[in-house]
Amino acid sequence: MFMEYKKIISERLSALTGLSNEAIEKLIEIPPKPEMGDFAFPCFQLARTLRKAPNLIAEELKNNIEKSGFERIETVGGYLNFFVDKANLAKSTLEKILTEKDTYGHTKIGAGKTVTIDFSSPNIAKPFHVGHLYSTAVGNALYRIFSSQGYKCVGINHLGDWGTQFGKLIEAYKRWVDEEALEKEPIKELLRIYVKFHEEAEKDPSLEDIARMHFKNLEDGKEEEVKLWQKIKDVSLMEFNKVYDMLKIKFDSYAGESFYNDKMDEVVKMLEEKGLLTESHGAQVVNLDEFNMPPCIIKKSDGATIYATRDLAAAIYRKRTYDFYKNIYVVGLEQTLHFKQVFTTLKLMGFDWADDCVHVGFGMVKFADKKLSTRKGDVIFLEDLLNEAIQRAKELIEEKNAALENKEEVAKIVGIGAVVFTYLKNNRERDIVFSWNDILNFDGETGPYVQYSYARGKSILRKAEGYGTNFDFQKLNSPEEVELIKLLASFNDVILSAIDKYEPSILTRYIIDVAKAFNKFYNMHPILSIEDEALKNARLALVEATTIVIKNGLALIGIDVVERM
RNA sequence: GCGCCUUUAGCUCAGUUGGAUAGAGCAACGGCCUUCUAAGCCGUGUGUCGGGAGUUCGAAUCUCUCAAGGCGCACCA
Fold it and tell me: In chain A, fewer beta carbons within 10 Å around the N or the C end?
């Protein structure tokens, strides 16, 4: 909404300069400091074509431009600075927010379009560790962000539920499983027997052959293997769901690797028919030399398919089933080349929609002090991290607000919010250096900070017990109020920018900015105690609008708010 | 060896797509609770924007080059 001013300015300037709307819109910028104006147009580029000094051009434009909707227009050096009419902005922004409430920021620009989002995708029988939260949090945020603009989203959990390791697990299960332990801590027990299998296989290599046989039987659909595989999958999912429930994440599809087992023959056939398959070192591959990429392997030399084949089958299946507008893969950056190969192969197969496939990559979760390895079982389970954060939140509640009613519930929301917030705060392509200290610090630019700002706002509204409708928006003219209103007005612009870049952190940063601006306002301007009724009402409206934007914003990145904390 | 990514304050990171004096948080120090929640606010200090060259009115941002670190380069996903 705030950016609509940009359009107005460019239209008016276009009429005066003869430059196109788009050219001008690209030049318009937001000055580094609010006292310099709300928008600025640099005249340096015009200086060349008009053969006139920039400051003279700015002066001339200032004298001739239509000024309605703006408080004033000034020139500084070669800049033409625009000051929007603040009373107008306050009125239109706050009225819009208070009318639309929960749907403020939402639009329908994506109506009729489907977006498939492949995210989280853990491996069955393996721990769901702190690294998995990156894909999970980013994917879930994208799901919510796209949905808010009217896109129909399909969340796909592409489970790692197929492969030779299941042969090993099946044999290990038959020999050593402790059913009771499996009931209690499925993943830990599965991990234990999996490790045990490798130890025993060292002494008795014949175990490997038995495992291979089990997997062959599984592929052939033999009853015993399928049953055990299903059981292992079920107990794993139960454990994963504990975490998904904590994070309040739901998927529309759990079609994982096994789902595409019978859909790959067709892909191979299509590749053959198009003459794309060539033999290389005994394997069937698609040559990608002309794209400066290594070949995409379709069939291994032993005739078995591989993950690229599976991803091709999955993409084709998704296009047929959902007719997606965008097909998003939230997968680690280390797989960049793999997805390039897959997308290029799809293009070679004649699928133009290959251009709609997007790999949304993210960095790694690393450890500063010690090097952790999954092999040694030296991992941090996500569930443990979340519980640790909840515990920390609980301690803080006891310390700061022991009289709080629903402590457990609040601690859960704040603790989990803090963790998710940390994962979504920075550019997703950055690595996260995992540190207990940082992630359990609830001060500064954190989830709890934003939630706290919301709770403070709500507290004021509770104490006000409603407010009148005679507003004096004119008086919301302090720098703190104006700054806050401008931010609130640009909510939708920020969402669109996050969509454009598939980047939730843009939104997270924005929410921090709103909370910061609110706290500043809160500290400097009394609300409940002032005499002027019309100003009081306007400020209360501003407080309510702020709580709405924080709540809606956090909802888009998968974080809840609390009314008190 | 080749390709991709990263390098901004002591630490963790922003930087509106080439614009005005490069900004936040953490950590440190100082101030603000008989008034709307101090998980807050205010103040203090720090920069060869990895090095060098180029492009132009103007570069943290674009190009080239060098350096350091990370990831990836065919039968794992």
Answer: N
